[in-house]
Amino acid sequence: MPIDITTDFHGQTVISTFEMTPGTCTDVLEALTTAYDEVIRKQPGFLGGAIHVNDAQTRISTYSRWVKREDFQAMLRTQEMRERNRGIAAMCSRFEPVMYEVAAVF
């Protein structure tokens, strides 16, 4: 579902970055796509998300929006996502989810 980015959004925006080699990019992308399809999008408070891959296939960024911060944190604490995140992290040299607020839209 499309995400409208606005400064009056009062929920939680999370942008996660994953760094990997081009050889593991497809595996990480598959793991993330499956996680979103099977688990993340079904969690309470999930509003929408997107996955982006850079041209060199060395970085993936995900963008997700949640009703509130606690919804995102609860999703991370589920046994299913803890196991999936361990597998995803093992394929990456770096994995960092960061919570943001929209400051401006152009």
UniProtKB/TrEMBL annotation:
Keywords: Monooxygenase, Oxidoreductase. Residues 13-83 form the ABM domain. One of its GO terms (molecular function) is monooxygenase activity. The keyword Oxidoreductase applies. This is Antibiotic biosynthesis monooxygenase.
